[in-house]
Structure formats: C-alpha cells, structure tokens
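Re: your question about Probable membrane transporter protein

S., sorry for the slow reply, the queue was backed up all week. Below is exactly what I fed in.
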Amino acid sequence: MGLTELTAGTLVFLVLAGFLAGWVDAVVGGGGLVQLPALLLGLPGAAPAQVLATNKLAGVMGTTTSSVTFYRRIRPDLRTALPMAAVAYVGAVVGALIGLHIPKSAFNPIILVCLVLVGAYTLLKPQLGTATALRWDGVRHTVAAMLTGFLVGVYDGALGPGTGSFLVFALVGLLGYAFLEASAKAKIANVATNLGALTVFAPGGHVVWGVGLLMGAANLAGGYLGARTAVRLGSRFVRIVFVVVVTAFVVRLSLQLLGVWR
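Result:
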C-alpha cells in the first residue's frame, strides 16, 4: 500500500489530520486520537499493525519538532525528563510487543474511564497546573517520573491514543508541574515512546512509509506551530485546551462504544 493507491481527496484528508494532530499533540498531547481514526478511514484495507506503525512514524516527526521547540523556549529540567524518557522507551518496546497480539477493542473502555477521571479531576481543581509546586524532590521525584514514563510507555506501545494527555496529567496531577512545563517534559518522553514502538514495528515491515512520511511532514508543521502557541499563551491556555481535548476524546470513545461512531 502506498501513496499512488490513494485518491487526491484521501491524501488531503490525511495531511490535514496530520497537521491537526501535531498541533493538538504539541499543546496537550493526544494527537493520536485525531490521527489514528483518520488513518483507519484513509487506509481501510490496512492491517491494525500497519495503522499503529504508520501513526508512530508520523507522530515521532511532530513530537520531535515540538520537544525541541519547547526545550529551546522553556528549558525543562533534563535531570527528570531524560530518565523518564529512557524508561518510557523501554516501556513502549514492551507495549508494542504486547500490542501485536491483543485486540485493540479491549482497551477502549479502560481509556474512557481514565479520561473521564482525568477530565473531572482537572475541572474540580481549577488551580491545578497553574504553577509548579513539586510534591517530591531528589531521588523520589525522579523515581516517580520514571515509573510514570514506563507505565505510559507500555500503554503507548500497545495502543497509543491519548498518551501525551496522560503524560501531561501525570506530571501535573502526580508530580506537581504547571501545565506548560509538564507539556515540555511530556514531549520529550513522547518522542521516546514513539521511537520505542517503531523499534518493534519498523523491522517487522508494518510501516506504510509513503503515507507516514507525508502525514509526518504535516504533523511536524502542526507540532511546531502548537509548541510556539502553547509557549506564547502559557499554562492557562494549555489547561483550557487540555479540558476541551479530553472532553472531545470522551465523547468520541463513548459514541464508539455505543456503536454510533465506527
């Protein structure tokens, strides 16, 4: 399956989806919940592993761009971000190996419950993420970040949608970061999880390279714009977008589980 087999309308649709996914992912994470459904619609004949792998290729281009942009402008503490990213990579490799053998439909109810809890907690605590107030320091802080990175990495390798949002929420709700700094650290970890999944998917021949690179270029542009927008408008803006995106994800997954949205 390649670009020559797709209509012009399908290619435009996939490019626009890639751009939007990159923007959303850069601001609050969760671009996969935009990009994966688009790939399922645009590549109806592709195997599940091909869709997941192609999504990872497109996603890693956007997350790399946004992580660099965030780092240059926010300067997040790499003493936390790099260990978290390292174990997130390992977790994603483990998750991708699991994801090759389990039905993806089993995850949707779990994802939905998690997103409802995340959204409700954020709404009920309006001051959450407005400023950094770390709950631990030193080794305990690093260990908590690494555990978070590994668990989210496993999830990202196995399925993926909403990974960035879960990373942001864990950094805000568990570790005490402001939304903007949490987004910066989450991007670094998300690059690692995408690379971890590709470490499994690419050698297996699952990536649709033409589609992935085209969507990746659009994702890259969206990620660059999204990161600059988030940095310019600050944590309050990121929090608002976070709530909107989580709500949209909850609605989409609910309709899918009810059989209204396939």
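The mean pLDDT is 85. The chain has nine helices and no strands.

Happy to talk it through on Thursday.
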